[in-house]
Amino acid sequence: MKLNNYIDMWTINKDKYALFEITPNVYAIVDIETKSAVLIEDSNISEQVKKKMIDSGNRVIDKNWFNN
Question: What is the pTM of this model?
């Protein structure tokens, strides 16, 4: 897989995906609509996607979000 395969996560579908802050500066990607984790097997690509999401202003959530 390539980084461009995930471009929708920080562009046209930016409102569908968020970053769940597990610990300070450690994130997991979350599908907001389904409240489920998004797994990217390649850790290098995963980190690049997270950086793009942060740079693009995707929402960052914490554990309290799951209680809603």
Answer: 0.90
What is the number of alpha carbons within 13 Å of residue 27 lying toward its C-beta? 22
Domain ranges of the chain: 3-67
**Contact indicator for 9, 17 with CB cutoff of 8 Å:** yes
Of residues 24, 64, 22, 30, the one with CA closest to residue 49? 30
For residue range 6-51, what is the model confidence (pLDDT) as tens digits?
Answer: 999 999 999 999 999 999 999 999 999 999 999 999 999 999 999 9
Contacts 24+ apart (CB under 8 A), 48-51: 48/3, 49/3, 49/6, 49/9, 49/10, 50/19
